[in-house]
Amino acid sequence: MATAAADAKYELITRRLQEVLGGDLIKAILAEGRTPKCYWGTAPTGRPHLGYFVPLTKIADFLRAGVEVTVLLADIHAFLDNLKAPFELVAYRVKYYKLVLVAVFRSLGIPTSKLRFVEGSSYQLTKEYNLDNYRLCATVTEHDAKKAGAEVVKQVESPLLSGLLYPGLQALDEEYLGCDFQFGGVDQRKIFTFAELYLPRLGYKKRAHLMNAMVPGLAGGKMSSSDPNSKIDFLDPPELVRKKIKAAFCEEGNVAENGVLSFVQAVLIPISELRLARLRGESLGHVEEGAEADDDVREEEARKPFVGEGAPDGTVFTVHRDEKWGGPSHYKSFDEMRDEFAAKRLHPGDLKKAVAEAIVSLLAPIRQAYEADPEWQEVTKLAYPDPNAKPEGKKKPKKVYHPPPPGKGKNAQQALPADGGAVGAATMVPKEPFGEVADKQVDEQVHAAVEAAKQQ
């Protein structure tokens, strides 16, 4: 591969990352004209939220650069991570995650021909994998295993043994998925360095590791699936999105731990730049780029950058304001926006409105895909059942009316003795079928019974 083309792909692969370990390995692969292979894993526990746009936006860069990307739907890891998801729900959650992730890539018009999904249980339960896991357990110290998972595995007062296994499994995944580099958040760094240390001890090669910065949640801390106020669901309706953004922590002049501002940096501006590049015809040679989005939303959602009309060239994000407050503000970079916010020239209310509308437009094609897919809707109910729903009780069978046999029930004819005494069993007269003949027979039977009673 020509040096210029290899350099351009490496720049696309590594831009906006917080840290790269082993970048020379990737450069060497590109220089040889080979296709780099990446692995990114996610444990299907809670519902994926808007924070997933952060890694998915970066994965979009990988795909545009021609990287073969494997998404590991880590069902075994999900169970080991402090029992966040029981096995009976994991299978449905794996399906839900796959549907969401594919919908996101399609909404962005990202080529997915080099994207594959793998379930962890498809190979992590094999003899070979388990033998390697035992070999690793015989090599790794308790101290190193605990240290590696400190930022990822939930820390509790009485930790489970599964928390010590987690880092080793993630390291082995690099070998069994055949990747050249693993991608994740910077909170995964200790697991990445753990893999670099221990995989060679098993005779396997060391991989490169690429890390994204962590993005604060809407409440200021880490964006979490378990905290509904800190995240926005992919299927949240527009009014709920606006409500959550309006309530988000975004203190005037404060650029630290500002989830709204950080989301602009990590997601909205990169997507806006992606769409601007596509409008300029810059697709790195991928004829399918931009064609993944559905036809009816492609032009409106997958191609429209977050730039207002009449914005000067180079603008990547526009904050719309009323003319009495100075009119729209156009920004050519995140640094420019951050400086304006820090200087209190960009008001939190104006920023929130712009971000809310951008998110609504991002989620529109995803919600549209969900509403048009009955299978996805059914999988959602099974993967994340409503905890407040009352269990359906067994329905009582409907009573079916069966008419009594002739001579029985309310309308049964009963012969009465003349002296008011009791009538024996022989005097109970069943009524025969309807008609004059039946009535005559009944009269005769009643008369005979009365006469018999007189003679007693």
Structure description:
- Strand 2, helix 3 (53-64) and strand 3 form a beta-alpha-beta unit.
- The chain is globular, with a radius of gyration of 35 Å.
- The protein has a six-stranded mixed β-sheet, sandwiched between helices.
- It has helices at 3-14, 23-31, 53-64, 75-80, 87-108, 127-137, 142-148, 162-176, 189-198, 238-246, 259-279, 295-302, 334-342, 348-371, 374-383, 436-454; strands at residues 19-21, 37-42, 68-73, 115-119, 181-185, 208-212, 317-319, 329-331, 413-414, 428-429.
- Helix 7 (142-148) packs antiparallel against helix 9 (189-198), helix 8 packs across helix 9 (189-198) and helix 11 crosses helix 14.
- Mean pLDDT is 85; it is low at 293-299 and 422-435.
- It is of the alpha/beta class.
- It starts with a helix and ends with a helix.
- It has a domain at 413-454.
Strand order of the largest sheet: 1-6-5-2-3-4
Helix and strand string, N-terminal first? HEHEHEHHEHHHEHEHHHEEHHHEEH
Measured distance between first and last alpha carbons: 123 Å
Number of strands: 10
Q: What is the arithmetic mean of pLDDT?
A: 85
Return Rg in Å.
35 Å
Morphology: globular
Low-pLDDT stretches are: 293-299, 422-435
Main β-sheet description: 6 strands, mixed
Annotation field: number of helices? 16
Share in β-strands: 5-15%
Proportion of residues in helical segments: 40-55%
Secondary-structure class: alpha/beta
